[in-house]
């Protein structure tokens, strides 16, 4: 087994965060995200930074697509490039796997606005254009990562925290008085596949991450993701301990990244976390040998809300559990 983090960390010192990640994780290191530095460094702004052919800017209500990039969009792109420069320097020819995180097409569509003020989710053509821009940009970004880390296998983690709300018609309109209509599963699959195919064609491994109770694991498996990362506690609570869909996904070849450690400062027992992982994998009905190369241990979600000391401890405990 291996261990990694979801992506976000506390603090604003990127070199320090990069050194902590590289010094703590055995193999599967991730490109740190430091949301405390502002919206350009947060999940949506960082993901808009990789779009190809679409501009954006920050408005009072949040990010909005525009014909050309605004100052905040340009800052997000510059910040991502600077961060990768720092990580490359700190890594110093390290050969382990490198993971980059981006928001998925449906989370971006549910978060980013069109010029007229409604979310991209409201417009069928606009959400497809956004997905194409993301797929093209991610492909280019993987090529950039390959130049920086030529001996490292690459992973792109596609974050889709809003996907369950999109499928359940629970995303509020900009006015707040209504909800956007649900998206049909074939369309949801099609836009996810655009990104999955771009990641794989660029030579990286596509992994979906959804820290929500109702993870659409069958949809994510069908879209072609090689693995699904999830919050074990939320999934257990939502399914009542049932694991049929997860067992089907695993049997079909989808690896599981189990978020079994807390992501905020709370007291926890690593031994209890190990028992939870063992109980969960046992319920899926596969022998222990089946898990050796197909499970990754992670925190339940990003660590931006934790203290620096706690974030370091959680990543170290994840490595210990994996070993």
Characteristic key phrases:
single chain; 323 residues; alpha/beta; 12 helices; 10 strands; 44% helix; globular
Q: What is the terminal-to-terminal distance?
A: 7 Å
Which ranges are low-confidence, i.e. pLDDT below 50, for 5 or more consecutive residues?
A: none
Describe the biggest sheet?
A: 8 strands, parallel
Structural class: alpha/beta
Number of helices: 12
Beta-strand share of residues: 15-25%
Give helix % range: 40-55%
Order of helices and strands: EHEHEEHEHHEHHEHEHHEHEH
Shape: globular
Average pLDDT taken over every residue? 93
Quantity of strands, as a count: 10
What layout of secondary structure does this protein have?
Layout lengths: L1 E2 L10 H11 L4 E2 L12 H6 L6 E5 L2 E5 L4 H21 L6 E6 L1 H7 L12 H25 L5 E6 L3 H5 L17 H17 L3 E6 L6 H6 L4 E5 H8 L4 H8 L3 E7 L8 H14 L11 E5 L8 H15 L1
Parallel strand pairs: 1-10, 2-5, 5-6, 6-7, 7-8, 8-9, 9-10
Antiparallel strand pairs: 3-4
What does this protein look like?
This protein is α/β, with parallel strands linked by helices and 323 residues long. The chain is 44% helix and 15% strand. The strands form 2 sheets. It has an 8-stranded parallel sheet. Helix 11 (270-283) links the parallel strand 9 and strand 10. The protein is globular, with a radius of gyration of 19 Å. 46% of the residues are buried.
Compact summary:
By secondary structure, this protein is α/β, with parallel strands linked by helices.
């Amino acid at each position: 087994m291996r261990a990694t983090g979801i992506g976000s960390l506390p603090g604003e010192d990127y070199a320090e965060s990069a050194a902590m990640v590289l010094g703590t994780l055995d193999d599967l290191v991730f490109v740190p995200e430091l949301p405390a530095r502002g919206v350009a460094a947060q999940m949506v702004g960082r993901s808009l930074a990789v779009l190809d052919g679409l501009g954006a800017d920050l408005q009072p209500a949040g990010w909005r697509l525009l014909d050309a990039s605004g100052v905040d969009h340009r800052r997000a792109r510059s910040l991502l490039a600077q961060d990768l420069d720092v990580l490359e320097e700190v890594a110093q020819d390290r050969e382990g796997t490198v993971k980059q995180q981006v928001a998925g097409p449906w989370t971006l569509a549910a978060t980013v606005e069109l010029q007229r003020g409604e979310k991209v989710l409201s417009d069928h053509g606009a959400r497809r254009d956004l997905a194409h821009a993301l797929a093209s940009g991610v492909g280019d970004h993987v090529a950039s990562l390959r130049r920086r880390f030529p001996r490292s296998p690459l992973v792109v983690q596609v974050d889709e925290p809003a996907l369950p709300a999109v499928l359940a018609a629970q995303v509020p309109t900009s006015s707040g008085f209504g909800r956007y209509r649900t998206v049909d599963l074939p369309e949801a699959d099609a836009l996810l596949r655009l990104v999955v195919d771009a990641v794989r064609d660029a030579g990286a491994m596509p992994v979906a991450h959804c820290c929500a109770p109702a993870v659409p694991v069958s949809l994510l498996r069908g879209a072609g993701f090689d693995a699904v990362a999830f919050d074990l506690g939320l999934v257990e609570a939502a399914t009542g301990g049932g694991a049929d869909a997860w067992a089907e996904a695993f049997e079909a070849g989808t690896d599981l990244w189990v978020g079994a450690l807390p992501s905020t400062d709370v007291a926890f027992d690593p031994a209890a976390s190990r028992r939870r992982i063992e109980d969960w994998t046992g319920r899926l009905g596969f022998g222990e040998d089946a898990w050796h190369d197909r499970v990754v241990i992670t925190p339940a979600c990003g660590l931006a809300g934790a203290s620096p000391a706690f974030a370091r401890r959680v990543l170290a405990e994840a490595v210990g559990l994996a070993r």
